[in-house]
Structures are given as structure tokens and as C-alpha cells.
């Protein structure tokens, strides 16, 4: 029997997200709000004797930030939050528990898209497109996040959030996880007889499961702080002067980084090799931090200017209209990555004559109307709410009927999209809006 072994060489090209320590710091600094950046710089100065900080001194005319629609948000006092944020809590766990691998890089990427309530605000498909990772790698990264504290963090919806908490709780009723997984809609809709029949259990058992679920939290990240009790320092101020917009970067809110020249001079001529090496490392750390802060300022300002230019009518028109705008559009215009835009607007604010507005609120998705023109989905949602407010409550409009009415008005969207917008607006389905009085 003839045995033949064939050896061949094959060259393959793969694309991976590789980050140096300097790049990681730059991305981290870009992600920070001004208040978070101040705290980060202070922590760096504690470890580096060459860093001296001149404290920022910023005062604002606005005590209460507003949404892009002009709605006033919760009151903000002039006291900074001294508690650990959810983002900081997760980052610490990741560095402590997970080795420095490509998978950890993906975990760190996804963490930046977790909101204050602990929910993941990017789909795995979107994350895969940005990072060029494999689908299984993104799923593995999400699984690692969902194993972190607090239980429920990294969930993509309420159902998954409750399931993650139940899975870890040894005191949970035996069927609680299964009911959440397979009969969530029936449980929420109180169609308990359907669940009881399919599982061959009594209504009293379902009541126990429902009572237990009531003890879980729908917002696992909220315990690490909320907007209440914080103050917002905007990165950009927009003023209207003679009908034109003037964009002013907020330098006052930023701490001034200074080099401790006296300390450097004291040890630079030392003959001790370890002292020289230490001093050299600290100089490099200072320069790296200084460049990261400058790059953050330049990037946030560039993104902010583009947003302001694209949404000029919001600042000039009393009705505050918003045009369709996406992060991808900004990224293409500025020749930067879409994830960079996302980091640049995360937790960043613009001070306007109408109050302080988060930069992320200026991004509005669009639909193409029957006339071929783009319509901001915020306009569609506004009209949808008007239709529901004006409907006959004895005969509420179904999602299909709402879709038809909007189509007649030039805003052609599917029934499923109507349902999605309705959920986002907190509007119940027609059967639950019906009244008999």
C-alpha cells in the first residue's frame, strides 16, 4: 500500500482589530465625558509625578439639560458623582478576569455600547461590521459581558435581562427561567391559562413565578448612578449671532495638563539606571496622555461642527426641527471610522439657547416617503402619537390602520415599523388602548 503525504503552503489574509496601549488610551479618553475625563486625569496624576493639573473652572447658565425635542430632563445639582460608574465597574472586572486577547478587545468594544441601565445598544451584526470579527466571536464576547456583575448586564432586551438574573439566582422558582424564555409575551399579557395548560401546572404556580419576577430589576445598571445628582459640562457651546451660528469649544471645562519640569530636572541627571528608566516611562506616559486629550478635543469638535452644520434649522428655528442624520454619514464626511463618531458623541453635550442637549440626540434615522423625499423618523413618531391621541378610544386604530393613514400622508412605513415606533413611544397595542367608559 502506497502512502503519500502531500504538504502544501497556503497564504491567507485576515483582518483583525489590533490595538496598542497608546491607541487603547486614545479610544478610552475619546469615550469619556468631560467629568469622566477629569476623574481619569486625576487618577493618572496620582501615578505619575510629572503630571500637574490646573483645575478647570466652568460655570453654565443652564442647570437643567434638555433632550433634542426641548423636553427638560431631571434636575442636575452642582455636585459631582463620587460613586463608581457602571462603565468603570465593568472595565475593572474585564481587566481583572479576562486575559489580554483579541476576544477581550471585542468585549471592551461592546462595553462602550452599554447604556446606564445596563443594556447593550448595538446589535451583534452592527458590531461585527465595525470590528470585522466573526459572528461566533461577537457572541462569545457578549457572553463574557453577561457573566459580569451586576446580573442582567449586557442584555439586549427586557426578556433577556430577566432571564440572565434568574439564571444566576438559586432561589428562583424552578420553572421561572423556562417561562421567561418560552412564554414571556403570555406572562406579560397575563394569558396565564395558556401557560398553565401547556405546562400542566396550576395558576397558583404561575402566580409565584410572576411574584418572583416582580422582585427582579429591569435596570441592573441603574444602581451605579443616574443623571440625577450630576451636573453636565458641555463640550461645545452654540450661539446665534445675527442669524448665524457661532461654535465655541469649551476649554474652560477641561483641566489643564502641565509638565512638572522641576521634578524632571531634579532626577534627569541621575546615574541610576532604574531611575532613568522610570523617568523616561513617565515622560512617555505624560506625552501619550497629552496627545490623547488633544486628539479627543479635535475629534469631538470636528464631529460637533458637522452635526451643528447639518442640523442648522434646529438652532435657528423655534420649532426645533431635526433632519435625517446618521453616524455613518458623519464618518464618511470626516474620513473617520463610524465607531469613532459613536465614541465622540457618547456622553458629550452641546449647550444651546434652548438648553443643554446630548450630541447623540441629533442623529435621526429617516424613511423615504411616497414622494421620494426623506422624512425623519422623529416626524413619523410625532404624527403617530397625534393619531393615537385623536383616535376613538372605543375603537382604537390598529397598527395596520395607522400604517395606511401614514402612507396616505406620504409617510409609507410597514405595520411592523408602526409597531416598533409605537413601542418606542410607550403606546400600548390597540386592544389594550380600548376603553368602555
TrEMBL record:
One of its GO terms (molecular function) is sigma factor activity. It comes from the Bacteria. InterPro entries: RNA_pol_sigma_54, RNA_pol_sigma_54_core-bd, RNA_pol_sigma_54_DNA-bd, RpoN_core-bd_sf. The keyword Protease does not apply. Residues 277-435 form the RNA polymerase sigma factor 54 DNA-binding domain. GO terms for cellular component: DNA-directed RNA polymerase complex. One of its GO terms (biological process) is DNA-templated transcription initiation. Keywords: DNA-binding, DNA-directed RNA polymerase, Nucleotidyltransferase, Sigma factor, Transcription, Transcription regulation, Transferase. Belongs to the sigma-54 factor family. This is RNA polymerase sigma-54 factor. The lineage of its organism: Bacteria, Bacillati, Bacillota, Bacilli, Lactobacillales.
Amino acid at each position: 500500500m502506497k502512502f503519500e503525504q502531500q504538504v502544501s503552503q497556503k497564504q491567507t489574509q485576515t483582518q483583525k482589530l489590533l490595538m496598542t496601549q497608546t491607541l487603547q488610551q486614545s479610544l478610552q479618553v475619546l469615550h469619556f465625558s468631560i467629568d469622566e475625563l477629569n476623574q481619569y486625569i486625576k487618577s493618572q496624576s496620582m501615578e505619575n509625578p510629572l503630571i500637574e493639573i490646573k483645575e478647570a473652572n466652568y460655570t453654565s447658565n443652564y442647570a437643567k439639560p434638555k433632550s433634542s425635542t426641548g423636553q427638560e430632563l431631571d434636575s442636575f445639582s452642582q455636585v459631582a458623582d463620587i460613586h463608581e460608574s457602571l462603565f468603570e465597574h465593568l472595565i475593572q472586572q474585564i481587566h481583572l478576569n479576562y486575559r489580554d486577547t483579541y476576544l477581550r478587545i471585542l468585549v471592551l468594544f461592546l462595553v462602550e455600547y452599554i447604556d446606564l441601565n445596563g443594556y447593550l445598544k448595538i446589535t451583534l451584526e452592527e458590531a461585527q461590521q465595525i470590528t470585522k470579527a466573526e459572528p461566533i466571536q461577537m457572541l462569545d464576547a457578549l457572553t463574557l459581558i453577561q457573566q459580569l456583575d451586576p446580573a442582567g448586564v449586557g442584555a439586549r432586551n427586557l426578556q433577556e435581562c430577566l432571564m440572565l438574573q434568574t439564571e444566576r439566582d438559586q432561589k428562583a422558582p424552578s420553572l421561572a427561567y423556562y417561562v421567561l424564555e418560552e412564554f414571556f409575551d403570555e406572562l406579560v399579557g397575563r394569558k396565564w391559562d395558556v401557560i398553565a395548560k401547556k405546562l400542566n401546572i396550576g395558576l397558583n404556580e404561575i402566580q409565584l413565578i410572576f411574584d418572583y419576577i416582580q422582585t427582579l430589576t429591569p435596570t441592573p445598571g441603574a444602581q451605579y448612578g443616574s443623571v440625577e445628582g450630576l451636573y453636565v459640562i458641555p463640550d461645545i457651546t452654540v450661539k446665534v449671532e445675527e442669524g448665524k451660528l457661532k461654535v465655541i469649544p469649551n476649554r474652560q471645562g477641561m483641566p489643564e495638563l502641565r509638565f512638572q519640569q522641576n521634578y524632571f530636572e531634579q532626577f534627569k541627571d541621575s546615574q541610576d539606571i532604574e531611575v532613568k528608566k522610570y523617568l523616561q516611562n513617565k515622560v512617555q506616559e505624560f506625552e501619550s496622555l497629552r496627545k490623547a486629550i488633544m486628539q479627543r478635543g479635535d475629534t469631538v469638535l470636528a464631529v460637533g461642527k458637522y452635526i451643528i452644520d447639518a442640523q442648522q434649522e434646529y438652532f435657528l428655528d423655534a420649532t426645533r426641527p431635526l433632519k435625517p442624520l446618521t453616524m455613518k454619514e458623519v464618518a464618511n464626511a470626516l474620513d473617520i471610522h463610524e465607531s469613532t463618531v459613536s465614541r465622540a458623541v457618547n456622553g458629550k453635550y452641546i449647550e444651546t439657547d434652548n438648553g443643554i442637549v446630548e450630541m447623540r440626540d441629533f442623529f435621526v434615522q429617516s424613511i423615504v416617503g411616497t414622494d421620494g423625499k426623506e422624512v425623519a423618523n422623529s416626524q413619523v413618531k410625532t404624527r403617530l402619537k397625534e393619531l393615537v391621541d385623536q383616535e376613538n378610544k372605543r375603537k382604537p386604530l390598529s397598527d395596520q390602520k395607522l400604517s395606511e393613514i401614514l402612507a396616505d400622508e406620504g409617510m409609507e412605513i410597514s405595520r411592523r415599523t408602526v409597531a416598533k415606533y409605537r413601542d418606542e413611544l410607550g403606546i400600548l397595542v390597540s386592544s389594550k388602548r380600548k376603553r368602555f367608559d
